[in-house]
Amino acid sequence: MSRSTYLLPLAVLIVATILSSVFIVDERNKALVLQFGQIRSVREDPGLYFKLPLIQEVVRYDDRILGRDIDPLEVTPLDDRRLVVDAFARYRITDVRQFRQAVGAGGESFAESRIDTILRAQIREVLGSVTSSEILSADRAALANRVRIAARNEARALGIDVVDVRLRRTDLPVQNLDATFARMRAERQREAADEVARGNEAAQRVRAQADRTVVELVSDARRQADIARGEADAERNAVFAAAFGADEEFFEFYRSLAAYRAALLGGNSTMVISPDSEFFNYLKSATGKPAP
Asked: Which residue among 75, 144, 147, 197 sits deepest, i.e. has the most Cβ atoms within 10 Å of its Cβ?
């Protein structure tokens, strides 16, 4: 046999051994070098590294910020109005050694299930300590931050940092929507009835005030009219008295003419009177003086 027959397989074996002892860590990963399942070294910086072929193996973990969508879950706030919460989280593997010791060979899939468990428990605990109004208000961001802090404290034991938690959607369960809408309609109808009652009460007060004002104005007007009428009657009587005192005969004549005008109207064509009555004294006298 020629020497090349032995050298070629040997060369291939040497190259394969060299290639199997070299590994690359890029900027997206962190790597653990394991020997018989035990951690021998941690490689976090990008570069070219060596390991013992066949004896040691390399396990890589993602060094980027990862996302995890949480399946919708039902929570019960303090006011017992159940809500369906849809959330998501962002996390990062910060300590690959601790991460490997916590999850073992399960890797990132096992870690995600642990994160789901932690987040679901913390969401129920935090949202269960407040009312549904707070959850549905602008305080949702503060509640999500409370969930993140609590989840971060638990996830730290896994070598994971929970970077962010967001509550994307908080809805009522389908079976509760009709009851909730009915309750909202009843509340709005009650508020409308209260407003109508308050409006009627205010209108009644305005009407009562207006009626009282009308009575006061009419009473005052009548009082002033009676005063004016009394003053006019007094002035008229004073004029009559002055006229009677100035010329008694003329005053009697004037009074007789006024009596004739009132008695001898157009529709009053018949009078029953004694012939010697004093009513027609001025008509019987040629001089305009009462008959003797």
From this structure: 147
Report if residue 98 sits inside a domain: yes
Domain span holding position 88 = 66-172
Q: Does some domain include residue 260?
A: no
Separation of alpha carbons 250 and 242, rounded Å? 12
Do the bridges between strand 29-35 and strand 66-75 make them parallel or antiparallel, or are there none, so unpaired?
Answer: unpaired
Q: Give the number of domains in the chain.
A: 2
Per-residue pLDDT tens over the stretch 201-231: 889 999 989 888 988 899 889 989 989 988 8
Q: Which residue has the tokens 């860590």?
A: 25
CATH number of 156's domain: 3.30.479.30
Instruction: Please check whether residue 14 lies inside any domain of the structure.
Output: yes
Q: Could you give phi then psi for residue 42, rounded to 5 degrees?
A: -120, 130
The structure's pTM equals 0.52
Q: What is the residue-averaged pLDDT of the chain? A: 79
Distances (CA, A) of 17 to 21, 58, 59, 63: 6, 15, 19, 28
Cα atoms in the 13 Å half-sphere on the side-chain side of 282: 14
**What's the CA angle centered on 46, arms 61 and 60, to 5 degrees?**
15
Task: Give the SS3 label for residue 192.
Answer: helix
Last residue of a domain, one of 157, 172, 187: 172
CA atoms within 13 A of residue 15's CA, in its CB half-sphere: 6
CA-only gyration radius of the chain, Å = 57
